[in-house]
Every structure is written in structure tokens, then in C-alpha cells.
Automatic annotation (TrEMBL):
Domain of life of the organism encoding this protein: Bacteria
Keyword Chaperone: no
Pfam families, A to Z: BPD_transp_2 (PF02653)
InterPro entries for this protein: ABC_transp_permease (IPR001851), LivM-like (IPR043428), TAT_signal (IPR006311)
Organism per entry: Methylobacterium crusticola
Record flagged with keyword Isomerase: no
Localization annotation: Cell membrane
Protein name per Swiss-Prot or TrEMBL: Branched-chain amino acid ABC transporter permease
Matching PANTHER family: ABC TRANSPORTER ATP-BINDING PROTEIN (PTHR30482:SF17), HIGH-AFFINITY BRANCHED-CHAIN AMINO ACID TRANSPORT SYSTEM PERMEASE (PTHR30482)
Transmembrane segments: 17-36, 42-61, 68-89, 101-122, 129-152, 178-197, 223-244, 264-289, 301-324
Keyword annotations: Cell membrane, Membrane, Transmembrane, Transmembrane helix
CDD domains cross-referenced by the UniProt entry: TM_PBP1_LivM_like (cd06581)
Its membrane topology: Multi-pass membrane protein
Amino acid sequence: MTALVARAAAEPPRRRIGLSGTAVAAGLILGAFALVPVAAQALGLPFLVVTATRMMIFGLAALSLDLVLGYGALVSFGHAAFIGIGAYAVGILDAHGVHDLGLQALAAVAACALFALVTGAISLRTRGVYFIMITLAFGQMAYFFMVSLSAYGGDDGLPLSRRSTLAGLPLLEGDLPLFYGVLAVLALSCLALHRVVGSRFGRVLRGTRDNAVRMRAIGFAPFPYRLTAYVAAGALAGLAGVLLANQAEFASPAYMSWQRSGELIVMVVLGGMGTLVGPIAGAAALIAVEEGLAHYSEHWRLGLGLLLVLVVLLTRGGLAGLAARLTGARP
């Protein structure tokens, strides 16, 4: 599996949605999410708001991974560690009486950026399967570290006393306010990454993905660009962890497991690597299929696995690549 993912990252799909097409596609996806509360009320299905919020949170986490996987060809199997660190930043500060969302988010982003800087500086000196294994090792180290912290729940996790406040106000209380808060964060993140990948930095990062030797020959050292992208991706994933902790009102070491990292990779590959909108669509599709199959059978993981195999084999470039072919979008 790791070899196939590494090959897919090293050889991105030929047909891509351009940056302008990405903006339009992102607008359509975000607009569809914005209509979920209306549909949930009309259908009498309030759980749709909770499910859509979870989709957007994991879409944000997958979007952060796409920055290094889709644009940097770096297959990280420890990316979920950043989600867990972000969640525990909320949980630990909450346990000590700090409930302000701004302080919690700042602590989460700082902790994730520092962890990414240290581990990335080491991991990025390796390539291929070795990079995959070392990121997996760092992710498991973070996982077992949190399991060992009995003061903060250990393996049982850490419940929050309440959701975060903003300027002392309980603005995230209730599923609907949290939904719109997550939607706003996702929209701003899409806009920021859209600007980043279209900038000189983004072009150099894509160049190192396609041919690192050639980039060195023209005067660009790949290491600092890859490390910067790795740190930025970790910080953004930490923000997703902050939102996940608030939705579940719980922080758990399970957020940091290698299985969760694998799910994030599946979301990116399913949606389409290097497209920005693909990871969001992939996260939404994966969670929707999980919910649907789990409703009909306790063996839903078997059906999910078969479906994912078919999607990967039959749709080059994932859902974004399929959309590009159907709409005639140019690379």
C-alpha cells in the first residue's frame, strides 16, 4: 500500500483543475455545505448538521495533508499526530481553566508547528519508504506519549468541561453555531492555501515534487521549501484538532493513531491529490459512505474497502480528476 501511495504522489495525475477552476469548485462545495442546515431542517434530520461538521473538520485535516502529499510528494503516515496535539491543547488548557478559543488555537498551532519543525527537520532528510516509516514512528511516539499521561486521562481520553468560548461568550454552544464556525475556518483555509499554491513558493514546491534535481540545478534548495510546507500543514491540522475536540467535547489518543493517518491519506487520494478541493470532497465522500454502509451492515468496512479499490482503479486523479474529465477542465 505504501509503495502504491508513494508512486501516486510522485506521479500526480496529468489532468488537473486549474487555480481558477479550483476557486469555483471550492465555492460550490462550501456553498453545498452552507445549505446543509436548511436541508436538515426541511427533512427533519438534525444529525445531518453534526455529520457535515465532521466532514468539514476532516476535510480541513485532509486539506493540510494535501499540501505536503499532493504538492510536495511527501507521504506522511504520522499526520494524525497533529490533530491529536491540537485536540489535547484544547483539553489540557480546559482542564486548567482556560476556555478561550483564541488562546487554545494559538497554543495548538504553536505546539503543532514546533513538533512539525523538529520531526520534519529529521524526516525530510530521508526519501520514499524511509520517510513514510519515520513519520509513522514519530506519530506513534506522540500517540504513546499521550496514552502515558494518566493525569490527562491516558488511554481513556480527556473530556472537556464545555466548548470553547470566544471573548468570554459561549458562541460555539449548540451544533449550528459550531457548524458555521467550522465552515468559516474551512473557507478561510481554502482561500489561504489557494494563494499559497499559486505563489512563487507553491510553484517551487511543485517543482521539487516533479524534479528535485532540476530544481537544485536552477538554484532552489528543496529542503527549506519542503520543511516550510510540512510545518504549515502540521499547524493547519492542529487547527482541525481544535475543532474536532470542540465538536466531540473530548480529546482522545485515538485521534493520533496511524489508522487515522491512513484515513487522511485515503481521503486525499480519493478526492484527488494536488487539487485543494479534492481532499474536502474525499473526506465528505468517505464519511458519507461510512455512515451509509454502517447503517445497513456491521461488516461495512469490507464494502468500504471494495468501493475504495474500485474508485482508485477506475477514476484516475480521484473525484477531482473525474470532475475535470466530465467538465473538460484543462490541466
